[in-house]
């Protein structure tokens, strides 16, 4: 039989003295399938091993064969031995007995080693034979076959079955009352719950396992399932004498890594809470808050803190409440498009879906780099752990003078780091003292005529692939087709931009500090050349940051400003570098600090652009952000400098006065922050967010390390300051410390208004700093030190205000 399918997950097991690789798939027709691969064995390489070592390996019963290979290792050709062994779990034992650097490719997960060698991707074409009934009974999929032939297929999407669940359990006894689920199967939404009239917990858990087997989902999800529901489920199963929760497609159970990330063979586990935290960074992270924000809906009205009484007296309401939670989590996941994003990345990185969603960034890069290295007989070193290096110098930041500017053009280098890597042939395979290409740091690389680097060649292919996806998106005949190709091109962009990140890290297998330093040095040189050329032509450069430059248009009308921006962008697009005309800001304001500015974009679309201020910080309270936006509105809508000062200072003082008088809704004063494990803090008792976490736990609310908690300050004069938890849906009875909040607002606004001579105290009291008093913005000049390393200053944290 022949099938086209997407690979959801891959695992392996031992069977009859052989290692079988399981590829768990969903076919184009929507059928679940397990493809069993035989005959692939684990291996690694030894660099120039002594004869004594080879003799010992030949006598080792777990070594199947030893082959000689010539590999390119750290710039020179070396004689190596490829050692093939029987079992994957044995590889670490051999690895630890070899000196550092003498063992290659010995830390690649076995299922990925197969994926790389077979050159597979998310979408595959499989031919094979059905297994016998006894073997099939060990899996939950519709079809189980032994693979005869497998090859990569052109990317396509299939509708996956997604299973969201939620547990309600006793607070007093911890036992499970009900497990609800919401399943998306194609266009169908299935909702139900499992409970027992006799509160037989074992029966509930066993029926839950049967539901999983029946619907055979590709994805298991829920809100905070990694921190709560899965741990509760596994613990209660153990308490009821259930040895193995047969949740996986191979009848396996959940396993956990790094104490938070759960996996199960054949299915992708996605915690919606973690996805929300990563994608949205909301100020509050409760299911109710996020559902209201994204879906405009709220949880049902059941008192979770009195769940034992609620279950006794309002059982049907609790069941509906539980089902609603599972459904909300599912719909939030769909709203975030997390699965589609994962499938796009898996398609371009050539990985199973689970590895694309739950793997590290380095796994994505490995998938491309290791395949190419193997094709060119280049030795693959192992990742480095435990060490840390001095970070390389980053991108160039051109200092900005405080003020209000008009007709500001913003140009941005498209994919700057990937473009530099391609144009300069930067790679660990081209790094050479006799290279023709010299970086500003003195590091040299071979020209493409002598050797084309692996990384540049991969990035060139990705760029071409992205351009092709963009063309297909433009030619798409339906919104669905356009969204599909847009997703793929965006996934390619993410992958391309990830290359520099891993090369600049201290742990990645192909990391070389000289390479990362050379890339950023070329980037600094590029942006400085643009700035110098523009300034020599009399164009005022206002600001630049890594790959973008802000400069004033000599033309004060939109049509001519657009032409000028396009002309400048075209002039500096050369040698593989593309400078894109991004936008026009009219006006643009900064108080003179790098990475902090606000502007009104008038082209290509109208919008407010804000960078670096508290409106984008999740630990700012809403009124703080709103007050800042009010001031920005006054700045951006002032006709001239005279009106600007009067309007802005008046607005700021009014906002502070409103805060001091308590004319602000309570919910706009809520402060939220993530809390780590309590033991990770040196003096937890002095930290408001830690104390709040302890308080909400004492009141019976759910909390796990990493979760955000919310509070309101009620007395900032005490040490430590007194705070009260803010719990959505619960009446807040205490009085906020309005003076504390007024000072926080004054502090926030003063960072912007110091250019006008007002600091925090002067805004709060109404007086003005005489030392900074001036009649013009022009007197507040910031000395430009373009070639010197900027002095690093710690970013303000909540502790700075407490």
| CATH class division of the largest domain | Alpha Beta
What would the average pLDDT be, to the nearest integer?
A: 90
Query: What's the shape?
Result: globular
- Unreliable residue runs: 767-802
CATH fold-level name of the largest domain: Palm domain of DNA polymerase
Alpha-carbon Rg, integer: 30 Å
What is the number of strand segments? 29
The CATH architecture of the largest domain can be named as: Alpha-Beta Complex
Our count of domains comes out at 4
State the distance separating the first and last CA atoms: 68 Å
Residue share in helix = 25-40%
Q: Characterize the biggest β-sheet.
A: 8 strands, antiparallel
- Strand coverage percent: 15-25%
Look at the helices and sheets and give the structural class.
alpha+beta
Q: Could you name the CATH homologous superfamily of the largest domain?
A: B family DNA polymerase, palm domain
> Number of helical segments?
23
Reconstruct the topology from this structure.
Blueprint: E1 2-15, E2 18-27, E3 32-37, E4 43-47, H1 51-58, E5 63-73, E6 76-85, H2 91-95, E7 103-104, H3 110-117, E8 123-130, H4 133-136, E9 143-152, E10 161-169, E11 176-185, E12 188-195, H5 201-215, E13 219-222, H6 225-239, E14 255-257, E15 261-263, E16 268-271, H7 272-279, H8 287-295, H9 307-313, H10 315-336, H11 338-349, H12 353-358, H13 361-375, E17 397-398, E18 403-405, E19 408-413, H14 416-423, E20 437-438, E21 444-445, H15 454-475, H16 479-503, H17 513-536, E22 541-545, E23 548-552, H18 558-571, E24 579-590, E25 597-603, E26 607-611, H19 622-636, H20 641-660, E27 671-674, H21 688-698, E28 708-715, E29 722-725, H22 738-753, H23 760-765
Parallel strand pairs: 3-9, 10-13, 13-16
Antiparallel strand pairs: 1-2, 1-8, 2-3, 4-6, 4-7, 5-6, 8-9, 10-11, 11-12, 14-15, 17-22, 18-24, 19-23, 19-24, 20-21, 22-23, 24-25, 25-26, 27-28, 28-29
Helix pairs in contact: 7-10, 8-10, 9-10, 11-16, 13-16, 14-15, 14-17, 15-16, 19-20, 19-22, 20-22
